[in-house]
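HUMAN: I'm a chemist; might I ask for a sequence paired with its structure tokens?

ASSISTANT:
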Amino acid sequence: MTREDTLKAVDESLLVLMEFTRETRKPIKNIHIRDLQILLYIDQKHDNHRVTVSELAYHLNITPAAASQILTGYEKKGWIRRIRSEQDRRTVYIEMTDTMKNHFYDELQIHRERLNKLLDKIGEKDCEALVRILSILNDYVRETYI
């Protein structure tokens, strides 16, 4: 396979994956990829499924004021709630509302079922190769662009 063939295959695969992502997100109305990333971070960063505004701001590489503005929008939509720390009233925790968690987990389950079907089709050996290649790709993108 030539370098040009590889580039074409990668380009085509990325376009197909973007389309797959777009199509599989349709049931999640009014939630953008960035929102999903933020909600995943809030839910999965700690065992208690909550983060501070400062942690979120640091993760997103934005100011706490900008993070708070994003969260205000989420709060108005009923996606998150803010909880003041009982030990330090200056600390505010963010967690998803029960309604959003239920919706979010339902959608995550559907997504995982789709991925499991794909992984079954790929097979164990190719899954290992895929994970290895994706790891290299992720490391490169993080080091170069993020």
The radius of gyration is 19 Å.
